[in-house]
Amino acid sequence: MTLKTTLIKNAKIVNEGKIFNGDILIEGEYIKQISESISAKSADVHVFDAEGKYLLPGVIDDQVHFREPGLTHKANIETESKAAIAGGITSFIEMPNTNPQTTTIEKLEEKFEIAAKTSSANYSFMFGGTNDNLDEILKVNPKSVAGLKLFLGSSTGNMLVDDPKVLEKIFKSTDMVISVHCEDEGTIKKNLQDHIDKYGDDIPIKYHPVIRSEEACYISSSNAIELAKKTGARLHVFHLSTGKETNLFTNDKPLKDKKITAEVCIHHLWFTDKDYDEKGTYIKWNPAVKTQTDRDQLWEALLDDRIDVIATDHAPHTIEEKENVYTKAPSGGPLVQHALPAMLEMHHKNKISIEKIVEKMCHNPAILFQIEKRGFIKEGYFADLVLVDLHHPWTVKKDNILYKCGWSPFEGATFKSRITHTFINGSLAYKNFKFYNVNAAKQLTFNR
């Protein structure tokens, strides 16, 4: 079999803190050569002119909810992975709170089978912990599974892990990354009941960050970190939403040596509580979007490396579900198509460099989860690549939203940058709102 060979010429390559003009030779699924100038050696080489666009490693989103199986009226792996590659996300790690939940090896394997047939992006899944599935956790293969996900608050089904003895056993039993959702359930329940007593079910949305408060986040995060320090576990705290929590994390060593890490999501970097008036329950997330001060402090911690990763927490619901009264409207929203354009918009506003975006969205997820041969533009690595035109404005509208749910919290926003091409394992899978059915996606593997 002849390997397909592609030569990308005239790109501004962004990798490991540098931007340089160069060419990339792709042979089959891998990057064969990176150089200032490469010539096509034969007529069989497909030469592709990047025309000076920025070439980034494919984004790795370590936190998505693609809703399959069981919740496919909202989304599925096929639709959301397509939206992801249109947004420059070439690999995703999906969460276990589907229906049924991914808390047994059998259910995990079923999800891998679905993704192998339908995913446009490279994929892995988190395995879910509960109060009573430690035996299943011990069977998980760390080379083929991204890690463990624990809900220490705000879970669906029986996934709230609230037994301290079980929690300590899980923390002691695995070397894999334990990713946690931290909000203290007791604090939230009390706050919610206080607001229901006052307003009934139709609580004004502006009280969402009061109900799911800074205190609820901080209590839970600090407890998880204390337990990780006690047990030596490898802990990753998902979606920080408060400035106070950022003080729990350090920047005194490189990411590869950290035992306790953190991430922030696009919505907590973009919106504040002032946006509830206009956006309503469309920006109802758990943890809640909070104050301008919180957002400023999250940015500060991101840029000084106390926060290691930017993710989406992509979690679609239908418009009908989101338009319910407060207590019935689910939390979460779709984000994978618009995450990278939103961060590039922040670059245009001089908030963050492109090199830093690549570090937090591409390099660091790969380092943190020990993903094999992805997240960087390096010879011998998989050719997961994204071409970006920084000066090609487009407006988010109903007719270009690719999520199955059909809406976006960014609807009406104009982004200056667009993702023009996405390569998955060396194959062009997406170009300017057109998809190529190349079936190039692969299961992620982990160097553990």
Q: What's the story with the biggest beta sheet?
A: 9 strands, mixed
Q: Name the CATH class of the largest domain.
A: Alpha Beta
Could you tell me the CATH topology label of the largest domain. TIM Barrel
Number of DSSP strand runs: 19
- What percentage of the residues does DSSP assign to strands (E)? 15-25%
SSE class: alpha/beta
CATH A-level architecture of the largest domain: Alpha-Beta Barrel
Kindly report the name of the CATH homologous superfamily of the largest domain.
Answer: Metal-dependent hydrolases
The domain tally reads 2
Poorly predicted tracts of residues: none
Mean pLDDT: 96
Give an account of the 3D structure:
By secondary structure, this protein is α/β, with parallel strands linked by helices. It has two domains: 87 residues, Urease, subunit C, domain 1 (Roll); 311 residues, Alpha-Beta Barrel (TIM Barrel). Helices cover 29% and strands 22% of the residues. It contains 14 helices and 19 strands. Strands 1, 2, 3, 4, 5, 14, 17, 18 and 19 form a nine-stranded mixed beta sheet that branches. It has an eight-stranded parallel beta sheet with strand order 6-7-8-9-10-11-12-13. α4 links the parallel β9 and β10. The protein is globular. It starts with a strand and ends in a 13-residue tail after the last strand. The mean pLDDT is 96.
Name the features.
alpha/beta; Dihydroorotase_CS; globular; metal-binding; Amidohydro-rel; 14 helices; Urease, subunit C, domain 1
